[in-house]
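User: Before I run my own analysis I want an independent prediction to cross-check against. Here's the chain; please return only the structure tokens and, at the end, one sentence I can use as a sanity check.
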Amino acid sequence: MAMASLSSLNSLPMQPPSRKLIDSPSPPTSLNFGSSGNLKPIVISGDPPTFVSAPGRRIVAVGDLHGDLAKARGALELAGVLSSDGQDTWTGQETVLVQLGDILDRGEDEIAILSLLRSLQIQAKEYGGAVFQVNGNHETMNVEGDFRYVDSGAFDECSDFLEYLDDCGHNWEDAFESWSEVSESWKEERKTSQSSWGPWNLVKRQKGVIARSILLRPGGPLASELARHPVVLKVDDWVFCHGGLLPHHVTYGIEKINSEVSKWMINVNEDEGDESQIPFIATRGYDSVVWNRLYSRDTSDLEDHHIEQIQSVLDTTLQVVGAKAMVVGHTPQTTGVNCKYNCSIWRVDVGMSSGVLDSRPEVLEIRGNKTRVIRSESDSFSELQAADYI
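Assistant: Structure tokens:
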């Protein structure tokens, strides 16, 4: 997808409305996550979650995972929220984990990663912590039926998971939550029994495509699972999204955007069969929420006035949404997790998946106004002090 054209910025609304938040947040949908200490409970508003109050919590942000379960586990262990003993135990206590989307495509363990995050979400709640995901462009592409970037092993995983779901008596919750524990044995058994007979491989591939279509079509069980997650999430005064939020997105309403994407994924308008129900502002076009790369591009090739223009758009967006900084994924950062524009934007996609850059995991930690990038190298715990925010 091409980078956003700078000339298009002139058409964006630059003057913020009188209120910081365009949305009137829905009543809280979850109040008490339990707390092992003296922290106030986490309060969530919106369905899917859109506004989160998490007083005093440590927040960690993890970028794109693209079907690489080993790297996903490595990133979560690095973040201090996953045990290293192979038991997939939540170790983050009251931490809030936010994953920035693009779990699907380019790797073969997509459902296993989604399953792992669901398990951690359930465990974290018991300790007063929380796990959130935001959907990225590869999630929305797959729900649209765009399978261009699907790894062959991911088609196989879809076939295996449908069989496992059948073994579980079609109990979705049981099958989905336990898949991360059993997926490896299913994969090993499949690879051991694979036939080299060419026509059979073609049949197997067709079976995988059909399985994926069943799972991910609007209204399908996996699409409905993705519908539980937002496209835009605001935790305290930090806003998280996959590509990037622009002023006209906030004017449209971030809770409205989340609701529209969710309804499209669960296919609430199934009887109408209306293609126009696909939420364009969130999922399609270079400046949609999940595709926007305006804040993530390398600034070394930009003129000063272009940088100033992008800074102005970012500042306006943050002012309107009532946030001090934004965290995005989507565009791999060859230099690792970093911030730009006076540290009002953090880019956390490091291309860690073996299907992308196969880089070492890195995560962003937020504690109040202090941030640090946690890397796997021994000297990685260098703190990056964010600017003083208004």
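Sanity check: Residues 1-22, 378-390 have pLDDT under 50 and may be disordered.
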